Amino acid sequence: MGLASKIQDxxxxxxxxxxxxxxxKVEPIGELVRLGSGYGGWTIEEAPYLKNCLxxxxxxxxxxxxxxEFANRYGAEVIIIDPTPRSVVHYQELTPxxxxxxxxxxxxxxxxxxxxxxxxxxxxxxxxFEEKALWINEDPIRFYxxxxxxxxxxxxxxxxxxxxxxxxxxxPTVTIASLLADVPTExxxxxxxxxxxxxxxxxGSIADWPVLPWQILVEFDVLREPGNASKAEVERxxxxxxxxxxxxxxFDGDRNYLYTR
Length: 261
Hints:
By secondary structure, the chain is α/β, with parallel strands linked by helices.
């Protein structure tokens, strides 16, 4: 990328992001804690109900630091959802290390070495991987490849700069209801979504969920395109979440939000 393009991106995503930042009231009440690496970490609210809970984590990429630390800290079961080919490989790389301590620290960027995860207190039953995409129904769906082959994240949302005859793969999908069908729903404490634009539809279907988690972590990918439309979309979802008794507890200044009931 040339200097001119970098400057344009800085203006678009930096200044534009501030101008069109959604009006979301943040109430940082309670004890907040951040888990995971600098790239893949998330801020959650510390709470007793997280002990031995169930979490659904959508969007693994190549950084499982949040999932591993969450399972480690709370003795939790984490269902990890991601059909992205490189994410599947990354999960396969870390599973042989379950029960082993970390051998090195986290690195910068979005791809963590398996040796960086402290899995010494994590059992195999605490991590469950679903090679599917979270969606509002269970019909197979197109999963669009990133325009830059160096990037890992695929998306249900078509992006105009995605080109080529093999611009997508077809993947199976799963709903919140299906994921909770064979587990005690009262254990469902946390939902994390880093799913490249599908979060708006998923959260928009919240009235159909069999039970609501106590905490929702969401990256609003729509904010990658700052403007009145993306601002209104996030504010609409914010109002919907508040109608279901959620309050925004944390905003990272970019696209990541924490909501709790």
